Amino acid sequence: MSRVVDIQDLTITFDTDAGPVRAVRGVSLHVEPGEVLAVVGESGSGKTVTARSILGLLPSTAQTSGAVLLSRPDGSAPHDVTTLSGADLRAVRGRDAAMVFQEPSSVLNPVFPVGWQIAEGLRAHGGLSRAEARERAIDVLRRVGIPDPEHRVDHYPHQFSGGQKQRIVIAQALVLNPSLIIADEPTTALDVTVQAEILDLLRRLPAEFGTAVVLITHNMGVVADLADRVAVMYDGEIVEQASVADLFAAPQHAYTRALLDAVPRVGGLRLRDRSESAEASLARKVVDRDGPAVVEARGLRITYPGRLRTPGFTAVDGVDLRIGPGEVVGLVGESGSGKTTIGRAIGGLTPVSEGSLEVLGIEMNGVRERRFRPVRKRIGFVFQDPATSFNPLLTIAQCIAEPLVVHGVAASPHAARGRVDELLEAVQLPRAFGDRFPHELSGGQRQRASLARALALDPELLIADEPTSALDVSVQARVLDLFARLQSELGFACLFISHDLAVVDLLADRIMVLHRGLVVEEGTGDDVLGAPQHPYTQRLLASLPVPDPVEQAARRTAWEATRA
Amino acid sequence: MTTVIPERAPLYKRLPVVHQLRTSVGLQRTMLVAGLVLTAIFVLTAIFAPLLAPYSWDQLRAGGELFGAQQGPSADHWLGTTVGGFDVLSRVIWGARTALLTIVIGVALSIFLGVAIGLVSGYFGGWLDRVLVVIADAIYAFPSLLLAILAAIVISGGQSSMWGGILATAISITVVFIPQYFRVIRAEAVRIKAEAFVESARVVGSSHTRIMTRHVLRNSTRTLPLIVTLNAGEAVLTLAGLGFLGFGIEPTEAGDWGYDLNKALADVTSGIWWTAIPPGVAIILAVLGVSLVGESLNDLADPRLRTRRRAAATAGVVGTTTAVPGGVLSAGPEGVAGMDDLEGPPDFPLSGPTAEDGERA
């Protein structure tokens, strides 16, 4: 059988308000039957657009040239998807190739049972009775590993967990037995332990279903775990194509090398160690490490009130925490573990329900805003999403000047400009950026400006809530590097919240692993990640795919052993 | 760093309507232009009524001679005269002034009150918010014309002076429109107060007043131009409705399209068309003009409805600009969020953690 899909010299142009934009330029790709091809690249590199063109899923503002030859399961001559429209295109979708999207909760329609949604594809392509369609739906649900499919086929999406929902989405794609599945960031929205399960399922697809997979991802660990062949995209072009072993062993293109270098690894070089040794000559604030704690929590409990007659939800359930002066504490956990809630409580955004939380000498349990306000100038906060953490109508300089103006350090944003320029330089942004608006900066630049704002009043404590999780790997590396450098120069204490073990390992003096509102393990990076004691930490570490195909293969075997 | 800086247009090009006019193409542009032209004619007529109208609104005679009632169109009276002996053209032109005053007063009153209440209600929430929402819903259920009749009686005791008529209409539409502004601003405030930049302002220690004015208010006024134009149309209709029902302005006080329509009712059956059609057409064109502007603004504000110039199939390479797939569709307030990531090519090799062989696990 010939190639499943053959993309020849594909160019895609978008009409935008700012004129035409070329998103994809002359891309040629092909997928063999049963092969897993990973397309990697940063956001905006054109990888999603390329993959969507296989199904003709481009918005009406797109113009395509080149050819996308998609083979048919019956073996007849392949057709060019770019020339199809209307009913012909609908016939192709789902039957010849199907798509798995990133966010399972928003892909499934909440008002229909999952079985109905799986059978929707069968109905669209016709020829099956209700009972047959249901039979097929149950069958495919069983094959993707949903327990008790005869019963659960009638359940609604909200009755499934995130990982199960993604399995259902995969089942939806598989039900028509397409020869190709396009998986667009299939595990990005999932926790690490769930990601491992989904990756396991995706790995079985070629063997058990005979399906080729185009995997779009920015996670090099996932690539190492799953792919046979890798295409690296940069700025709308394919800069390198190689088998997975070759690519990781000997990357050819400079961009690929930079991308691989930028991926943080557990147990890799620590940024703190490097900055302490290499730049010891720099003037830096001396902090008395043994001084009184900046943050001290004892038996901290935070409960979100429930609706009428339903009990509240306990997000944090008795946590003891201490952050000393100048210390970086990494808080790791999956979504729902309560790590963000702890950060918000320290920042005074969420009230404490029980126990004691002392922040810079103020007891936060039942604190009044008036009493806490003077302390706020000693706390900086960096938010997760750089896109929304700036007022879109104010310039960057005005945003950074905001804390200075509010606390009376400067009379107006204009008067604060000198300090703002200093701060911009400290975070390695040109001074001229102060006059730009937030949307004129890239994600990484915005996050650096966010850091500048947090540091405006020279705080003693910085709370960083997933500061790099919305960024691309190479951008993340630069932001983390800057973060480590500033921390060692300015000597602030820091609570670094992240779901990424490797990122936390890079920066933190001490790591706390949070699971369902409880601290399950605490210690230095070497202790916690080198020799984890708690089974949850062990599972977390084993689930983390490493960007090295050889090592990942060994880890996969170990992971399967822990699961059995 | 070779970052592409998006050109920022000069201030006048970024003003609400001008900006939309510049970005529109095709049918949407035609609609917007037609609406703007109609609205401009309406506003200019109202402003320059003394120059345009051949006679005053209450003039019955010129050079000591009566116009006469129900006279057909002639050189002296282009659109004839009414049953009361007034010049139809003059009354239609002066009527534009009454309508414009009603719009300005009604919209100005409701916008200030509605925005202020909506902002406080949405930002603070709690019991105040709940009470205000219930009141707003109750007002929604109230027919605006009935309210206007009530206001007309209360304000002028049935004596229909010019200001009495205008204020009665303005106040009644104020009462009816406040809930609309209230709801829109409240919904935006509720959304925006959960945004990270408001949280960031709270963490910094900004006072509530500062957060409300500097961060929430400025970001919640996006849809206001749209509601203003739609409400302006409704204001004209309410004024005309009042006049038609006999609660309008006396002919000796000001021109009033609704009043003229009411008086023209009997003429229609006797074949006199010139007394009814001109004020009717004036009402239609005024409402159509502002509604067209409003509808086009609505379409242009939504990136999914906005049509764009087609790119030539062989468009040149556009710098190092890259598009985020799907970003253009889910554009944020700035409209072109898809163009956000304009970071240039990183200077190789990227500085960052270099973890060569420290694998240990």
TrEMBL record, chain A:
Residues 5-260, 300-541 form the ABC transporter domain. Signal peptide: none annotated. Pfam families: ABC_tran, oligo_HPY. It is a peripheral membrane protein. Its main location: membrane. It is found in: Cell membrane. PROSITE patterns: ABC_TRANSPORTER_1, ABC_TRANSPORTER_2. Keywords: ATP-binding, Cell membrane, Membrane, Nucleotide-binding, Transport. One of its GO terms (biological process) is peptide transport. CDD domains: ABC_NikE_OppD_transporters (cd03257). One of its GO terms (molecular function) is ATP binding. One of its GO terms (cellular component) is plasma membrane. InterPro entries: AAA+_ATPase, ABC_Ni/Peptide_Import, ABC_transporter-like_ATP-bd, ABC_transporter-like_CS, Oligopep_ABC_C, P-loop_NTPase. Belongs to the ABC transporter superfamily. NCBIfam families: PRK10419.1, PRK11308.1. This is ABC transporter ATP-binding protein. The lineage of its organism: Bacteria, Bacillati, Actinomycetota, Actinomycetes, Micrococcales.
TrEMBL record, chain B:
Residues 334-361 are annotated as: Disordered. The chain crosses the membrane at residues 31-53, 99-124, 131-155, 161-182, 224-249, 272-294. It is a multi-pass membrane protein. Residues 96-294 form the ABC transmembrane type-1 domain. The keyword tRNA-binding does not apply. PROSITE patterns: ABC_TM1. GO terms for cellular component: plasma membrane. The keyword Transmembrane helix applies. Keywords: Cell membrane, Membrane, Transmembrane, Transmembrane helix, Transport. Gene3D superfamilies: MetI-like. Coiled coil: none annotated. Belongs to the binding-protein-dependent transport system permease family. This is ABC transporter permease. It comes from Cellulomonas rhizosphaerae.
